[in-house]
Specification:
With about 210 residues, this protein is α+β, with helices and mostly antiparallel strands. It folds into two domains: about 70 residues, 434 Repressor (Amino-terminal Domain), CATH 1.10.260; about 120 residues, Umud Fragment, subunit A, CATH 2.10.109.10. It has a nine-stranded mixed beta sheet with strand order 2-1-3-4-9-5-6-7-8, with no helix packed on it.
Length: about 210
């Protein structure tokens, strides 16, 4: 009976940790299923505390969430701040044509972030200049971008417009077959994407921070 209770407790701890990580990483169970390739029923049984994964699956989950295995398998003590690894995230300036976004020549500096709080994926920072996205993104804020080739309608993206080498932050809107880049500040006119004004999405804005 004691062994049964211990196994049940382990499943509960794992499920609690997995669901906390979903919230921290801004993910859903559907994202985990799609991006890891694990069976839907299996993933849902882990998150519901019904089953406990094998060691290789725990490691795969740890790699997916970018955390140590202990963050998934061990009970997290409420009210105690655990020391976590700091990750340097590059701040991107001008983007050389054809180079990877985070190529050394594109990097202006770094900002440290706590690994456990970061979303998954390839990440970089942009330093916001100007007030076109105010009040959502104030001037001089740092915006964390997850690299991806497209975003959902209405989301804020880092975009290269018409061959420019410096990314701009705009809200992507699709309407009647048109793609528009919208500023949150009404003083700025929309940018309509056409063959004469091409654009390339670099990634999705996932976090805003600034220094006092």
């Amino acid at each position: 009976m004691k062994q049964l209770k211990t196994a049940q407790k382990q499943r509960e701890i794992l499920a609690n940790n997995l669901n906390e990580l979903l919230e921290l990483k801004r993910k859903t169970q559907a994202d985990v299923i799609r991006e890891t390739g694990f069976a839907e029923a299996t993933v849902r049984s882990w998150f519901n505390g019904e089953k406990y994964p094998r060691l290789d699956k725990i490691q795969a989950l740890a790699d997916y969430f970018n955390v140590p295995r202990s963050r998934i398998t061990e009970e997290q003590i409420e009210g105690m701040l655990k020391v976590s690894q700091l990750v340097p995230i590059p701040i991107i300036g001008d983007i050389a044509c054809g180079d990877p976004i985070t190529a050394e020549e594109n990097i202006q500096g770094y900002r440290d972030e706590v690994a456990d709080t970061l979303p998954t994926g390839n990440l970089f920072y942009l330093h916001c200049k100007g007030d076109s996205m105010a009040p959502t993104i104030p001037n001089n804020a740092y915006v964390l971008i997850r690299q991806q080739p497209d975003v959902e309608d209405g989301e804020i993206a880092a975009v290269l417009v018409n061959g420019d080498t410096e990314a701009t932050l705009k809200r992507v809107k699709r309407q009647n077959g048109l793609v528009m880049l919208l500023a949150d500040n009404s003083k700025y006119a929309p940018i309509i994407i056409t063959p004469d004004t091409p654009a390339r999405i670099l990634g999705k804005a996932v976090k805003v921070s600034f220094d006092l």
